[in-house]
Design brief:
The chain has 428 residues and is α/β, with parallel strands linked by helices. Helices cover 32% and strands 16% of the residues. It folds into two domains: 229 residues, 3-Layer(aba) Sandwich (Rossmann fold), CATH 3.40.50; 149 residues, Phosphofructokinase domain (Rossmann fold). The strands form three sheets. A seven-stranded mixed beta sheet has the order 3-2-1-4-5-10-11, with helices on both faces. A four-stranded parallel beta sheet has the order 7-8-6-9, with helices on both faces. Strands 12-13 form a two-stranded antiparallel ribbon. Its main location: cytoplasm.
Length: 428
Amino acid sequence: MASPKNMIVAQSGGPSPVINNSLRGLVETARDLPEIGTIYAGWHGIEGVLKEELLNLSGQSPEEIALLRVTPAAGSVGTCRYKLKEHQNEDFDRIVEVFKAHNIGYFCYIGGNDSMDTANKVAQMATERGVDVVGIGVPKTIDNDVGDSEFKLIDHTPGYGSTARYWMSMVQMANEENRGSCPADPVLVLQAMGRKIGFIPAAARLADPQRKIPMQIYLAENPISMDQIHTQINDQLKKDGRLIVVVSEGLSLGDIGETKDSFGHTQFSSSQLTVAQLLVNELNKRGLAVKGAARANVPGTDQRHNIAYASTVDLDEAYGAGQKAALLAAAGESGFMSTILRAEGPGYNVRYDKVPLPEVANSERTFPKNWISADGMDVTDDFIKYCKPLVGNDWPSIPMINGRIRFAQLQPLFSDQKLPKYVPQADR
């Protein structure tokens, strides 16, 4: 048998409550595979690879690696929003140099559709340049927008179930607020993450599957004018006297002064105005059908790093996706992403498989139109049936010391740098 080669695993894009459990699944599986030697993390994603900043994960305490299960977001190994572009030949040359300098035979990238594009480019580059490196993708995004709209490539992405559970809980609590304060504040507008796709705001319906709460849900992919939404809100206020309105951050109701990241995606939490505040301002300006004012509640990145609301189902599946990626790497299955597919039959079960990276790189799933209610203000029972198993039924078990959460604490065990300093092309 050939001598084992080393592995680099890295993360990209926005984090999630369970991203580190994919990392843990990868590390705990890979360290027991004879084909794989030392496991490194690219510190802050592909940028860490380019800068030759490689954190030794094999040298970390197994107890700390295990604690990655309940350590949210990406603080342990970092993430980035750096896009490898076709013309950046110096970046690709540098990646090859780093791989050769550190005997890298496996590269695993955890992230969303843009990250799968990076994983795909690295896998293709290795093939084209005759470099013996296996490139593997590991799915991650709270938006649930990776893959196809028929759910044949992937049923759902790790991270979505936890954010859906967060919104299910937030709406339950917001309803208590709205019930109590409605004489003065009859309308409470909640804004959910999700850019162009409505899976996150749709999860608000899980808080009230019997549809007893006065609530309207507006998805970004279902356009509506300010005149229409004002009329619909007032119509329901006349009937119920109060209302919770859930909107996608990407719902187009007017100019919010958008800012964009390096991938060209709108950063709604960095823009000058939120959609929720824009709507609240207009509602209060135009007037409500009952006395009182509209108010806004706009959770920010808490939606993607709150481990207390994480789904235990999501945690387990994130681990399984990482585990599958390690097995694909060891088997030499370059150019694939590990995936989660829903098993047929009664009850909820999943299986882990693989899909070609070119099919998911830069993919963009759309929210099924038949899951949007006919009046455009809600989602259907078919969506509830799809989403309910993903949020689980239990709270995660989170270790505490002196009242504080005990997160993983990885040691700064970086490999020796063997190459000259390098500034990534896009940063020059």
